[in-house]
Design a protein that fits this description.
This protein has one domain. It contains 1 helix and 3 strands.
């Protein structure tokens, strides 16, 4: 059985963002852990198993009063050969 993954085989891409993207709504650590758990769920043993086909790395430096706040996030593009049934209700 040929187990290679080619970009031409990708029929569906799921985008998962891990980190803070909105300066007015900062996420706490538990929300970021849930985002990472969703990413791992897409990449681990479950069938069909996704592959990372791209990433978007973002950061913003905000000045709030005398303090600087850095927002960082990574959006992972997870490729599948077809849309998994587990995403039908999302």
């Amino acid at each position: 059985m040929d187990d290679t993954f080619d970009l031409t085989d990708v029929g569906y891409i799921k985008r998962i963002t891990v980190g803070n993207t909105d300066p007015t709504n900062l996420k706490d650590e538990s929300v970021i852990e849930r985002q990472m758990a969703e990413l791992n769920f897409c990449l681990e043993k479950d069938f069909p198993r996704g592959k990372i086909v791209g990433q978007e790395k973002n950061f913003q430096i905000l000045r709030i009063g005398e303090h600087q706040v850095v927002l960082q996030s990574i959006t992972y593009h997870i490729g599948y050969k077809r849309r998994p049934a587990r995403f039908e209700n999302r």
